[in-house]
Amino acid sequence: MKIELNEFFSTIGKEERISVNTDLELFESKLGSFQITEKAPFELHLLNQEGKTLLVDGETDVTVNTVCDRCLTDVPTSIHITIDEALDLETMGVTEDEEDGPAWLEGSELDLDKMVYDEILVNWPTKVLCRENCKGICSVCGKNLNLGTCSCDRSVPDPRMAAIQDIFNQFKEV
Ligand SMILES: [Zn+2]
Ligand SMILES: [Zn+2]
């Protein structure tokens, strides 16, 4: 959703606390597509400070269905989002040049979905495991080894899978 900020730009001292909801349902990045399963209301605080700056701050929580790095099962991951931005009203109002402004600002509109998207990207977990001791998947048959063992001889891996197994071994050493 988008929030019109025009009044906040032009009215000195204008302040409001609003509770809004993002329309974002899916987080799509080069890592893949991930469902956003839970969204808390985004509590935003807007304040025009003496006509000089517009404070935009607030926070929310979203839950994104990420996947385990080892076995690829879904792992709901909670991501906390905090916004604390001070927009310079002089440079924004006078020039049309918004190159230095935040990406979620489009003219006088705050693009809430873009804001949430960018914050998920910044706060994306570097490592996701379904459990500390996840056994991963068999490099030969692809079976999820948390659910049981298979009869594959993994000491002689399929060369096509060797590279993948190297990656799994790296994880085990961490
Ligand atoms: Zn796992
Ligand atoms: Zn196997």
List the helices and strands and how they pair.
Layout: E1 2-4, H1 6-10, E2 15-20, E3 26-29, E4 32-39, E5 42-49, E6 53-67, E7 74-88, H2 89-94, E8 105-106, E9 109-111, H3 112-122, H4 159-173
Antiparallel strand pairs: 1-9, 2-5, 3-4, 4-6, 5-6, 6-7, 8-9
The protein binds zinc ion (2 copies).
Structural overview:
This protein is α+β, with helices and mostly antiparallel strands. 21% of the residues lie in helices and 37% in strands. It is built from 4 helices and 9 strands. Strands 2, 3, 4, 5, 6 and 7 form a 6-stranded antiparallel beta sheet that branches. A 3-stranded antiparallel beta sheet has the order 1-9-8. A hairpin with a 2-residue loop joins strand 8 (105-106) and strand 9 (109-111). It is elongated. It starts with a strand and ends with a helix. Bound molecules: zinc ion (ZN) (2 copies). The site of one zinc ion has 6 residues, from loops. Residues 138, 140-141, 143, 150, 152 line the site of one zinc ion.
User: How large is the share of residues in beta strands?
Assistant: 35-45%
> What is the general shape?
elongated
Which secondary-structure class do the elements indicate?
alpha+beta
The proportion of residues forming helix, as a percent range, comes to 10-25%
Radius of gyration: 23 Å
Major sheet characteristics? 6 strands, antiparallel
* CA(first)-CA(last) distance: 41 Å
Which small molecules are bound?
zinc ion
What is the H/E string? EHEEEEEEHEEHH
Please report the total strand number as a whole number.
9
Q: Quickly count the helices.
A: 4
Mean pLDDT: 89
* pLDDT < 50 stretches: none
